Amino acid sequence: MTNKHSKILLRFAGIFGLIGALLGAHMAGAGSYAFRPIHAHSLVVGWLTLFAWAVYYKVFQTRETVLTKIHVWSAIIGSVGLTVGMWLYMVKPFNLPEGLTLTFYIGGGVALLISFIAFFLITLFYREP
Q1: Between vectors from CA 46 to CA 3 and to CA 123, what angle results, nearest 5°?
Q2: Which end of the chain has the lower number of beta carbons within 10 A, N or C?
């Protein structure tokens, strides 16, 4: 049973929801939309997607398998990697080399893609416990 998967995804969804809301408030107050893509991805990928997957694991009570572990951890790593990588690449807060920030950004996206593929496979092979 993967209730622990549900709980960890739910907690990360909460973190992303808070970050997305804070970014939105900051943009509104500052009158600058520089964080718009990071704000949007924090809410859609981080909050909405992780929350939906948390609900899936709670409702369907899937068995814990290597595939579910890959799904959960690639979802978390991908959500963090994509949004942080996007911030580093687009906003350039630390003036890091573009190759490094782009690699982080793309790596996060690839990890997130792996999580979506894993989730699709989990839904194909789901069996009642």
Answers
A1: 50
A2: C
